[in-house]
Amino acid sequence: MSVTEFRYKAFISYSHADKAWAEWLLKSLESYRIPKNLVGRATEIGEVPARLAPIFRDRDELPAAHRLTDRLFEALRASEFLIVLCSPNSAKSKLVNREIIEFKKTHGDGRILCMIVDGVPFADDPEKECFPEALLHSFRADGSRGGLSAEGLAADIRAEGDGRSMGLLKIVAGLIGVGLNDLVRRDEQRRQRNMIAVAAASIVGMSVMGALTYEASTARDAAKQAQKLAEAKTQEAITNKNDVEDLLKFMMSESYYSLLAAGELSAAENLTRKTVEFFKNKDLNSLSDEGFSRMTGSMLKLGQTLDRKGESDRAKEMFDKTLVVSRRYYEHHPMREAAIFRLQNNLFFTGYLALRQGHFVDAERDYRERLALIRKYRANTSQYVPGDAAHLYIPTVWLEREADALMGLASLLAGPLGNLTEALPMHARSVELHKQIASLRENDNDSLTNLASAYHYAGHTYVNAGEFEMAEDAFKARLSLYDELTTRDPENYRIYRRYLISLENLGSLARIRGDLSEALSFQKAAAEGYDILVAKDPENTMWLGNSAQAYYELANMALQLEQVPLATHALKKSKAQITEALERDNSRTIRRLTSYRVAVLEAELLVRGGNTADAQALLAKTITALDHESDGYLRSNGALTQYANTHLAQGKLLAESGQMEAARMVWSKAMNALETTTATLSPDGKSKLAQIYTAMGDQGKAEHLLAQLDGIGFRDSSARYFSETSGSE
């Protein structure tokens, strides 16, 4: 049969378990536009076509009685190529092996293209082998084996292989009979013509790239590397689809995240802002699902970038504006998968920022609505119109969303909302789902990062519940994951920050259990790590605030171990950093909390130096600032403990100066706050309450609380404040 007589360009052979990959490949191939300069070129397999269609995939359309007989074999014989999706599932599939054999009987070995989606080629472990047995042998027309076969192209779309984009290009190159370089390279003149064409189609083509190029040319080496990646992805987008939305896709994915990983916030902001401007006057109803996802995604990324820079109020404006758009789209298209996906995604960001700013009622409302939307979709998947956005083709995407929604809501319930009963099983379920996803998407960095976050939040809830061994297991599991991720990608500073938080988690737990030397080691390593981040991007207010908190913890541990010079140095650095961070953005409760903690520790050093009057003045000033905080502030993780410690310290100084009545008034104020809080009272908080009872002479209540704390392994060896971390990432 000649090439022109084939009915199908290719037949996709796959295991039913890999159906989502087959759907993605079919859509990608049938929508792929061959570069015009290649169309019509003579190759060994014929002229290069303008389109790769039709592709035969859906064997489900065949009548049940004929799936393995004439109709199926007819489709195989009528296909120019066979594309085999290789995975442990397909390796074990009798049907896939049968299809390969039937194709080889009539076409030989040279027209088979392999796409590895999972597993390992030629694995020692049969359970991981991705190649079906039939691929490894030639077959004669009568079906008998004709020896080993080593022909055929293999594209590896796994993250550690070629990746999706390059893997797809390999398959396309095989289907049209050209070299891979013909698809991914262009000479300079051709590249310039394409860029001009994209710019003519939309201003974003030049303005976004111009902004990125300018930023990258003035930034450090890491940003220059991000620029090169952006240019490469831009060229790939032009080659693949000659469509400006593809350019936007790469801008808002690889380019944006490369800039964040390199610590270049200014470049990331410029990139997202230009992309948002592109969509500014677009008619919402004229956008495809992909276009709508791109628009709202760029708006949310701009909000995230502003938040990282310390402009939380502007970030909130952007998140709220995006939520209005997402709700409107969902109201018009309530049965579209893309509409419900974008709305639940938007609710995460509005809820997350509300949580960080201490607006817990708003955060709970958004988090609960998000979880309800996700469960509504998962319970009625078949009733929704499938979305065409690329991320919706990932088989585990909705499972991942539910796991993430459970994690966020559980953390909110466990701390500020004081509902450990509901939170604990939610955390367990979230960790279970994230483990399941990570096992299905083996070696996927994002899945491992999400699992690590689930361990993080669960660990802090276990601390609040007094389950220290479970907390340690969670924190150690998280650290192990980040050990692996930082080894894979040592230049990814976003991942490195989370590695440092893992050290802080374990340092905090060691302090709670009375191992101050181990706590000091963890906090010292974390503080030194933040030096690297702050030096990398001084404009990153989030990193600056994290560093201030780490140096405070280091100072606190050093002082408890009587290492006064180290404590003095660390506290000085923490104070300078948190002062600068608050000047940039004082809307985050964790930053104000850190400043209050620093003040109390500074007061203790003043007392040690004999300067009691200045210490009293500093504590009085801190209490005045605390009195001006909103009611929600004291429900933030760690805030109530710090509030109590400030009043304990001030009361002690008043009592020592003979002002016992004034001291009792200060202590009573803190006692009332601790006893009436609706938030979960952490072990640290209970320790402060026991100290207040002791100071006020109520030894019975104090001993009752101390017995509870002793029973769970809490070791508060002094009457000083033992800092607790915020439990946030």
Automatic annotation (TrEMBL):
InterPro entries xref list: TIR_dom, Toll_tir_struct_dom_sf, TPR-like_helical_dom_sf, TPR_rpt
Gene3D superfamilies on file: Tetratricopeptide repeat domain, Toll/interleukin-1 receptor homology (TIR) domain
Pfam families documented for this protein: TIR_2 (PF13676)
Chain ranges passing through the membrane: 195-214
Gene Ontology biological-process entries: signal transduction
Signal peptide positions on this chain: none
UniProt KW Transmembrane keyword: yes
PROSITE patterns registered for this protein in UniProt: TIR, TPR
Keywords: Membrane, TPR repeat, Transmembrane, Transmembrane helix
Domain TIR: 6-202
SMART domains in UniProt: TPR (SM00028)
Ranges occupied by TPR repeats: 452-485
Name of the protein: MTH538 TIR-like domain
Native species: Kordiimonas lacus
Highest classification ranks of the organism: Bacteria, Pseudomonadati, Pseudomonadota, Alphaproteobacteria, Kordiimonadales
